[in-house]
Design goal:
By secondary structure, the chain is mainly α. Helices cover about 70% and strands about 0% of the residues. It contains 12 helices and no strands.
Length: about 300
Amino acid sequence: MSDATVRAGKAAIASGSKSFAGAARLFDASTRESAVMLYAWCRHCDDVIDGQDFGHAHRAGTGAPANPAGDIAELERKTRAALAGEPSPEAAFAGLARVVRQHDIPVGLPLAHLAGFRMDVEGRPYRTLEDTLDYCYHVAGVVGLMMAHVMGVRDPAVLDRACDLGLAFQLTNIARDVVPDAREGRIYLPETWLAAAGIARNDLAEPRHRAALSLLAGRLVDVAEPYYASALAGIARLPPRSAWAIAAARAIYREIGHEVRRRGPRAWDVRVSTSTARKLWLAAGGALSAVAVRRAAFPPRAGLWTRPS
């Protein structure tokens, strides 16, 4: 299938996330098409809330959205309509409806994802790590669950591991983007951590806090590690091509977190990313880990934040 909806999804992923675009190429054709359509809807919603194009700079002449509450309400309306089977002229919503229908994705999952965007719009505070993880679940964990459905997963234990990978990805993103996010008024680090470090919310982005902030970012990278480990066990239960793709994405994002910690106070001088050559190397390593983990026992999942039932 190569219709306009799929082509729009491919354009969105190519412009919005080089890391995920590279990993998505490893899927079989059918899974890849569903993955890019799902990504396109997620990217569209994110861009509407942030007033951006494909996750990049604010749209020329617009700046941040003037009516974020109205924007999230409109996204919810269009999403509910698409999930109810109403035709949509917008590729992002048409693609979401197709993916949900084709893979029997629970409609509560895309709505839970929008609830994460509503947290941003309403400026929800994150007092504890549990609060931060709840946010991570809504904006990324549910995406992991939807992607797992696309790959044919229905076992709740394996879905838990897919959610864990989404949590790990988002914890990495928070560590990488903590300074630019703070400049936009979005702070996801637990307030208890900031208070213990003597950092006031309002001046978190100030250069004088870089040393202390790098310790907190490193702490967040450490929090992500057991979720990355848990996710690896779930990869063993995926079809081979999907296992390779997800193992590659896991390796690439995990590397970003390690680089944030390695750079220390200089982590936010230039946005951390991985080169194309390094992505290829990590993708190859992902293939090896995807094979190796199939021979390992399925370990218990203990001590980790648990998704809502």
